[in-house]
Every structure is written in structure tokens, then in C-alpha cells.
From TrEMBL, chains A, B:
GO terms for cellular component: cytosol. This is Lrp/AsnC family transcriptional regulator. Residues 7-68 form the HTH asnC-type domain. It comes from Dyella choica. Gene3D superfamilies: 3.30.70.920, Winged helix-like DNA-binding domain superfamily/Winged helix DNA-binding domain (1.10.10.10).
Amino acid sequence: MSEETGLDRIDFAILRLLTKDAWLSNKQIAAEVGLAPSSCHERIKSLRARGVLLGAHAEVNLQVIGFALQAVLFVQLGKLSIEVVDDFVSATAAVPEVRGVFLVSGRTDLIVDVAVRDMQHLKTVISEHFNRHAVVLRVETSVVFNRQQQHGMPLP
Amino acid sequence: MSEETGLDRIDFAILRLLTKDAWLSNKQIAAEVGLAPSSCHERIKSLRARGVLLGAHAEVNLQVIGFALQAVLFVQLGKLSIEVVDDFVSATAAVPEVRGVFLVSGRTDLIVDVAVRDMQHLKTVISEHFNRHAVVLRVETSVVFNRQQQHGMPLP
DNA sequence: TCATATTTTCGAAAACTATTCGATTGACGA
DNA sequence: TCGTCAATCGAATAGTTTTCGAAAATATGA
């Protein structure tokens, strides 16, 4: 068991499997990692209880439900307190079209990943949720041509 | 049933529940959407078969496994063919530390979201996978201070 | 409008899986 | 070496998923 994390080789194997496919059965995982189903079940329960496994989310094909356009917004904010900025980040994340928000260092403050139906919809989202907001100084928009997301573990 | 998507109100309810928590049982979902378990099961099977539901991924606490630092890389590429660029996007997505890659329009070509252990690790990743690569003209790095991800449906 | 075809839903049975629990094993420090 | 503790196991139970034929609802066409 690694002293760093409190997780051993088998825990990592379980995490790797579940990040690849959260719908694997406990029985299948147990077989893959070489444990009895009851032991594997105990480990997964423990990983959840310790806050290592945070949950699982199904992935839907956004094209199919009519969200054909993706964009990235580079948002510049005014000089604000940390509290105001963090609140704006949370408010932004709560917008249904927003898939992700990053508060970053550098020339831009916020990077916002949005999924929309079309250009008209994109215009509406930017106008309603960013340009209208007093804390926002400037929004630069980039269209996403290609995108790849990695859901697995960041270990080779 | 919506003619646009081939999905009705109940399908959307199922998708909303599963994107929030992919570990909900079929029985629970059936109860929430007001169907018999067998009918609900049939719908979920169909959503998978039609490519609407693409899969599910467990979410792990990256801090706990030692990935304490997140960064966004803004990568500028040379004038290249679409094929070469798409290949580079795929190669980038395959790097374990890379969580997501966006090929975008505008002043930067690639936005890369990475999770690393520390600054030393970040330096290594940028050096090994970007600066070393001939197609990369320039990499600008931003540290991620705060991040929120939305896994649910982009509908109110 | 009515009859027919098709799809969807349902409940019950069967098959399978998760979950619990006491006993056993194995690791570790005294 | 011994005792303690945590992890593992197998078997029993409880619960869920999956299948399937029949019924209901919905769509189709004359």
C-alpha cells in the first residue's frame, strides 16, 4: 500500500476500471482485479466512503439531443475579490449550456466550455449570461472544431 | 415524441437522472419516471443501442491520488493539414495527464486541460509532449485556480 | 371512421447480482 | 513466537435485472 495515498495496486485497478466504465458490475470488477466479489464490494464501498470515488455520470451524445455547436469563451473580469469571482464561477457553472468553467491565471480569467444548438443560441447565452453581467469586461469566443475528453485515470 | 430527436419526455427524464448519477438502479429510475422496471429497462437499452447514451464514467478525486495541480495549455500549431492536426489532437488526448483537448478557432489552436502532481511534473509534460513536437510553435500555460464541471443535461 | 398493424407497457417468472456475516487467513509489531 | 488487526473468503440471503407473452396504447391506411 502506498503511504502517499493510502491506496494499493488493487484500488488503482478498480479505479481504472470504473473510470473507463462505471456500469461494470461488481462481479466483473472482482474477476478483473482477482478478488472475491465480497472483498471487491468492500473496497469499492470504502473508496466511496473515503471520498476517492466521487460518483459517476452517464455520457450523452449532445448532437442527438440537438446541441450541435460547441464553443469556448475566454472571459476577462474586472478587478474583484476572490469571493465575487468564485460566486461568478458557480453562477456560470449553473447555466445549463455550460459544460465546464476554469478560473485561470494569465491574460484571460475564465475559460468557459459551452454546448449550444446553433449560432443564435450561442449569441443568446453570451448576451444573457456574460455581456449583461457587470463583472465581465470582455468575452472572446472560439468555436470548437474537434474535442476529445479523457475520463480514465491520469496514470500510464 | 419530439420529431427532432426521436426522444420523448420520459427519455429525457431518464437521461437527466443518469447524467446526474450513473449508479442509480434501473428500479429507482423506473420509479422516478413513472414506468414499470421492465419498461424502463427497455428504454435504457434502446437509448444505448441508438447511441444516445454513450457510456458512464466514475469520477475520482484527483487530489487524493496525488494530482494536486491543474493547468490549461494554449497551444499554437504551424500551418498544417487537417489530418496532421487531428492526429496531433488524438495523440495529445492519449497522454495520461491530459484530461481534455479542444481544437478551436481563434488566436490559439489547441486548448489542453492537464492534471499533474506538481510544477516539476507540469514542466515535464509540456517539455515531453509539446515543446519537443515539431508541429507546436508555442505553448502558453495557465494555472487552474478553480474548476467546475457540469455533467448533467444542458436543458433547464 | 373504423379496422389493422405497430409500438409500448406491464406483471410474473427466471436468472443473476449485490450484500451481509461469521470464520479464516495473512501481515505486522511487540 | 505470539497476539492483534485488517483484509479476504465462501455461503446464505435479499434484492435486482432481464426475459417474455399478453394487454394496452398508439399510429397507419382504407
